[in-house]
Model the fold of this input.
Amino acid sequence: MTKPDRKSRRWYSPFRRHIDDQSGSFSIEAILALPFLLFGYIGMYTMFEGLRENNINLKASYTVGDLLSRETDLVDMTYLNGVNSVFAWLTRTQSDVSIRVTVVRYDAALDQHILVWSRGVNGRTDLIQDTVDAFVTPHIPILADADTAIIVETWSQFDPIMDIGMQSTELYNIVVTAPRFTEQLGFVGINDGTGSEHNDGTDDDQSI
Done:
């Protein structure tokens, strides 16, 4: 340590013993540092838990999309409610979950994804064509003319396990899957011979 010059010796001398003293107490330093270490550990654990929950929800969303892509029969709201229960079981969450399933068909002449049908579960509203154009289309990969795609959207809630200033966060995922064994995933009452309901703005006698 550099010694003070003559001008500073007057105020330095009384404190010299304390300034030069490099001894310390491990117990006192540990007590001072422990709260910061604990807060940092708890914060990292909570943030890691949030990332883990989001990863679980994403994998569950892909599983639901794969389940729907293998379906060859018509589905209805009872089926979709069951899929929502499957998603809740896969995520192992204690909060409410919800899904929305939408089927679109690509029209190359219009360069547009035509809404075939959309159904929300557990309070989620059905999509309309304008919403598909504005929000869903950017998530859909390139399709050939008349190809269809199944869009699965999922929601769940992440509540931090410890209060570190983080708020509850809604975990949202969107997954696009192509039907595997059929040209299009159908919904009961929409172009199945039992009804004429559709959402694409076409006439009732026009096939989708």
About this structure: The longest strand covers residues 148-158. The radius of gyration is 30 Å.
